[in-house]
Amino acid sequence: MATSDWAKNRQIMYGGGVFLFLFVIIAPIVFFLVYESPSCFDGKRNQGESSIDRGGPCQLLDERSIQPQAVLWARSFPVRDGSYNAVAYIENPNQEAGVYDVAYQFKLYDDRNILIAERFGRVPIFPGKVFPIFESRIDTGNRVPVRTFFSFVSDLTWERMSDPTLGVSVINEKLNGEDTSPRIDASVRNNTVSTKEDIVIIATVFDRAGNAINSSRTLVDRIAPNTEIPIAFTWPSPFPTDVTRIDLVPLALPKRTQ
Question: Which pLDDT score is estimated for 43?
């Protein structure tokens, strides 16, 4: 009996040793085959996100942490009879958060509150700034718009974003021909060490009361590091009142950081 018990114990010991050996060898292999490291696309809150796959280290942001954007105002200005430019000023108070692509709509109404024209487009919501959205040559037929409305018309997906025009400035602006054919001359300067491409500059002029009285747009295809190039904006007709402020805002499509 003693010998039999000893043999059984020895078998158990050997069996346990083999099991332990196989466990040590196989378990890590199984673990690495089955285990999925936390990511921003796994449908879980497992790496400090404030909601599923949003916030924490993720590119997408939790909307509960976002301060709402605001449409400050929208106006339209005659280019010629039956053709109007429209501009809206948007404020995004979130310094490092924006929307890469959102649909918007301008609506122009006459003095009887009848919709006479509308224009759709797409634009980013740039981080941490007040910026204009511009549409040119909206056809109104023989009607005159007296009210202009702007709204975003698609869902907003907030993401981490930096302003692609940091280091780009507009300088030396001069207004001439205000009473005949107004023209603004200025220079765009790239103060960074990298080439900037597809820079849109939107010019808006304001009267003494702070009301926008006209707007225009131009495009800079490419500007080399630490250089500046001239730009100009023109209008075919004189402004209705004196200009006391000129806004020249450079904008560019942002690129994702991840």
Answer: 81
